[in-house]
Design brief:
Number of strands: 9
Structural class: alpha+beta
Helix content: 40-55%
Number of helices: 10
Order of helices and strands: HHEEHHHHEEHHEEEHEEH
Shape: elongated
Length: about 325
Amino acid sequence: GGKDPGAIGLSGTKEKKITFNASRRLADHLNNTGQVIARLTREDDSFIKLRDRIAIARKHEADLFISIHCDAHNSNAYGAGTFVLGLHANDRNFQIAKKENSVIFLEDNYEQKYDGFDPNNPESVISLVLMQEEYLDQSINAANFIQQSFVRNLNRKNRNVKQAGFIVLKYTYMPSVLVETGFLTNKNEGKYLNSLKGQSEMSIAIADAIDRYFSNKNKEVSKYEINSKSDINKEDQYVFKIRIGVGSKLIPLKSYNFNGLNNLTFQKENGLYKYFYEKTSNYQTALKNLGVAKAKGYKDSFIVLFKNGLKYSLDKYLSEIEK
């Protein structure tokens, strides 16, 4: 918005106009259900800094953050895609993230505001990934619902759910998805996205996906609560590990690859490798291990609890031992 027009279509169509119109329709659809309160990060054609967009979501303690965009390319590419925060699987994903991240150049003192982040440097992206790792599974789940809705309801070309380093997703501390609704540089798709029909259909498809996401999430929570109640009084085996990173490629578990840390393990989940430091059955020891990991440079590391080999809520565990 404002001084940032975003992608420009073949007919001079501006991304900021299309995404604003589609987002307003999306918010109306969601608010009309009475089940979701949707808030926009901007109400007019004004430029909102990336951190301010995030601050709005955190102020309202949002349960889901959606960043809506239009894509552009020098080919005749087309189709809708969804992204979650992660390492780039290929150069195309990096180029998309680079384009979306470049908006920080329009902000004053962006080097200080974004901790020296450089959109042009792939290495800068690694630091982005760790902070959102706690919500990655939920983000992927939400992105899948949106992508499936595009294909099922609108027969859009499926560009699948991908991972890339978008700074707008870094500090959200909630499930977050970036949606590329299509390519303004494709003649037919650009015309569709710039039409009332296209914007309305896309917003309805996203609204349907969000509704499915929350319905599914509520079912899972209910099922979890029922199962966990029957397990509280059993002899439980708790193991605390320190999550220090995640990536799409397997990194050899050598101390020189992890800033000198030893006693490393990993798990592969949803095509990603999740790396852990140490393991202990004592929570106080886990806190000490967390301090070691942070001192070694893994400032965004956190404790993960496993109960009888399965991931378990740390907050729930702490509330149980206090009773």
